[in-house]
Specification:
The complex is a heterodimer of chains A (134) and B (117).
Chain A lengths: L3 H5 L12 H19 L2 H14 L12 H5 L9 H9 L3 H7 L3 H23 L8
Helix pairs in contact in A: 2-7, 3-5, 3-7, 5-6, 5-7
Chain B lengths: L3 H4 L5 H11 L4 H14 L3 H13 L4 H5 L3 H14 L1 H8 L1 H22 L2
Helix pairs in contact in B: 2-8, 3-8, 4-7, 4-8, 6-7
């Protein structure tokens, strides 16, 4: 039985044999492309920032001041330290994370949840399976 | 077959396609019911754009609250729109954000209409 999704997005019906590898690769790339187009830049932005926060060392204070509120003159906004808090958490240091900002853990969970829900929504939308609401 | 184009001409293009897919199996009365309920529940991309722009000037995250994403809204509120980067991305992305919300709303309305008939 052919995969319904592959048929519905118009991919060539390739029989399941190994010498049709190339069309199958095209199908995967096309599916990935559909996904990126449907999802937009947002999930990748959050993923990217999480990866950056997970790789940089939060203990060393950077010289570049990224916060626009601080550049504008506000020294201590309610979100101060959230970035470093998430970074600590992603490095496994929960104590430092809570010391930087109390809402660091919920913020990380929230971002991960947002990424997951966007992936799920796009996946549902690009899979033309209407049997769920028939 | 009911036509989304006739019933709801002010929809965004991808929204229109999606809604058409939802109402194609409905009767005309059902489709009209859908149209009136959906109109009151959908969000206009322009509203989202304008509230997002607020984030560049005064307070960030209002658009997220409008879209029902309270957690993200609070995050934006406390971090000045995630150091403005979140706000800028949302400005570029506002149509897709609205479509995400609207397609979920459309699905719910369609299920409601089909269930009550």
């Amino acid at each position: 039985m052919h995969d319904r999704r592959a048929v519905s997005i118009g991919v060539v019906r390739s029989p399941r044999s190994d010498d049709r590898v190339v069309p199958r690769i095209f199908a995967v790339v096309r599916r990935a492309g559909l996904f990126v187009r449907g999802a937009g830049p947002e999930p990748f932005l959050w993923l990217f920032s999480l990866i950056v926060l997970a790789s940089l060392d939060p203990a060393t204070v950077g010289g570049i001041i990224l916060c626009p509120l601080r550049i504008a003159g506000i020294e201590h906004c309610p979100g101060c330290g959230l970035g470093r808090s998430v970074s600590f958490l992603l490095h496994g240091d929960i104590v430092q994370s809570l010391r930087s900002h109390l809402l660091g853990i919920p913020a990380t969970i929230l971002l991960l949840y947002r990424i997951a829900s966007m992936i799920k929504t796009v996946h549902e939308r690009t899979t033309n399976d209407r049997s769920a609401y028939a | 077959m009911p036509s989304a184009m006739q019933l709801m001409p002010t929809l965004q293009p991808d929204e229109m396609v999606y809604v058409q897919g939802l109402i194609k199996d409905m009767t005309d009365t059902q489709a009209q019911q859908f149209a009136s309920i959906y109109y009151s529940r959908r969000k206009d991309p322009q509203t989202i754009l304008l509230t997002c722009l607020l984030g560049l000037i005064i307070v960030a995250g209002v658009h997220r609250f409008l879209l029902g994403q309270i957690g993200m809204g609070l995050l934006y509120l406390f971090t000045g729109g995630l150091c403005l980067i979140g706000t800028i991305v949302d400005l570029i992305n506002h149509k897709r954000l609205t479509f995400e919300f609207n397609s979920a709303a459309a699905q719910q309305v369609a299920t409601m209409v089909k269930a009550s008939n």
